[in-house]
Amino acid sequence: MKICVKFWLLGILFSLFSCQITETEPENMNEFTENPIWEDNFDIDGLPDASRWDYQVGGTGWGNNELQYYTNADIDNVRVNGGVLTIEARKERLFGKNYTSTRLVTHDKLNFLYGRVVVRAKLPAGRGTWPAIWMLSSENKYDPTNIPNNGEIDIMEHVGYDPGQVHSVIHRYNSNKGLVPYPESIIQVPDFNTAFHEYRMDWTPEYIKTFLDGKETLSFENSGKGWQDWPFDQKMYLLLNIAVGGSWGGLKGVDDTIFPAKMEVDYVRIYEYKQR
To answer: Which domain holds residue 166?
Structure first.
């Protein structure tokens, strides 16, 4: 009986601090095209396909006090080999920064309104790493000075000091007087760095949902209360990157013995939403 009570209490505590994966919902493929409208299976070795990808370059800290310099088409930081894309964060000094990495984007290649995004990836391990698969607005029509206010969808984020805790987060308006509660899921993925997992997002005019290996992890519905609550009615683009340190990823410092740190991507597929 004591053992049962113990596990019952642990279950309650866990539910307070972490979202559970729900049972798999129907795929609802009828809401999205059967075949991708855009995909990369990384079949050609070398740098990523320039017709599909571009780079965001620099060492500005990117609003998060990040420590890396994002390079432009540097094969040491990003490359395709054997059907896999590798984004690599390295400990090396460049333009005043002690680390380099890549921020790969579809901006100016593919900006889209609503759809399904599927990315199969293996994540880096190590304190100080901050990989992400995420989306930002392309148009920024609501707040040109604070880009996340226009909507940010973090399909996957992981901070190395908290291994295996995979986050999905939906960001929207921040009034500077306090944060609007952000819908978030936190899922334990023990083999995040040794196995590939499929990270997915479904985005329609009615909802945004995220999935891990086909199982729903987060759902956020359009309340119809205006852009502060739902800025997700404008085109967005996809980003893949590894940050080093930063306001979240660097909360417990950076372990310099872990580099180079790699995120590997097997494929990226984007499906079009079928307008009703």
So the answer is: 2-272
